[in-house]
What we know:
Blueprint: H1 11-27, E1 34-38, H2 46-61, E2 66-70, H3 85-99, E3 108-112, H4 117-121, H5 123-127, H6 132-136, H7 139-148, H8 155-169, E4 175-178, H9 183-200, E5 211-214, H10 243-251, H11 269-282, H12 286-293, H13 297-324, H14 327-355
Parallel strand pairs: 1-2, 2-3, 4-5
Helix pairs in contact: 3-13, 8-9, 10-13, 11-12, 11-13
The structure holds tryptophan (TRP).
Tryptophan (TRP) binds next to strand 1, helix 8 and strand 4.
Amino acid sequence: MCAEQVDYGTFEAALERSRRLEEDLQKNPGKYKILTGDRPTGRLHVGHYFGSLQNRVRLHKLGVPTFIIIADYQVLTDRDTFEEISENVRQLTIDYLAAGIDPTDGKTFIFPHSHVPELNQLLLPFLTLVTNAELDRNPTVKEEIVASGQKTINAGMYTYPVHQAADILFCKGNVVPVGKDQLPHLELTRTIARRFNHRFAKDNPVFPEPQPLLSEAPIILGLDGDQKMSKSRNNTIMLSADEDETAKLIRRAKTDSERFITYDPDNRPEVANLLMLIALCTGRKPEDVAGDIGNGGGGQLKAMLTESLNDYLREHRTKRKELEKDPGYIRQVLKDGVAAAREEAISTLEEVREVMNMQL
Ligand code: TRP
């Protein structure tokens, strides 16, 4: 193994690289292959929409081939439940499609990794390229162990980042749109690619070193205003909510006691978050939205948000309902995704066996 350690790096450096990558993607979309993924833990909410989904749709529309992994095995790392996995896979797929991901373009694939055996097999050689100490140091895993509240931690929790490297490298993805929490996993993936090439394929590298593309979308707080929007915190608006539910949730959203509305994220985070959501839905600046409301107070702010968000999500919600009625189509999208992913995985595994001297 190379002596060089996994470098978990600084956020600023990653952001700078990511900006350069974004520029190049616009100019040369043909050079890239995007690989992105989610855990199927439930339906998507407004925070997901503005945080990652919208960005994926934008990249997809640049025409870059896109593999979207539904990481069903990863769900088992920090919870005991598995009963809802297949329903969650379905719901996630519906949200991707409703948001504008179009797998009929022939270069966009959605699939659960549990159905791609050759991808999973890459885990075995990859595990031999990292040390226990490196896996122990992964800051995202450490946080997840605390957040899970579990007394015993299964080995999948420590090793899933290596499996995630297989998720990314099986198709030789070279761009991975992610949030900050995924940077350690990307760094590990790059390390595994580098070590693999160095050890087994010096003259003819098998794997690219994939680059993270950081979303610069603001983090959406939950309706309680003091934490990130997240299902486990019960502070979300689901994309699948109807217009009345949306109105009701927003009516209960936390604001503050000051009537005059201003955009001041440091001192008035709850109000700023609602203003930011209006801004994202309407393409305006949050400061300008605040200026328009002014003395209208919290009531007007909430009324405006309800209307903007319901308008903004109307198309998504209508498509969602249509797709719900057609489970056969959703299954077909996933089956097509699995077939395309397997083709890539089989060919990569073949190459891997060959350079490792394991051919028959
Ligand atoms: N770990 C990611 C998350 O929790 C999900 C994921 C699995 C992923 N495989 C991936 C993300 C591959 C990007 C690329 O959100």
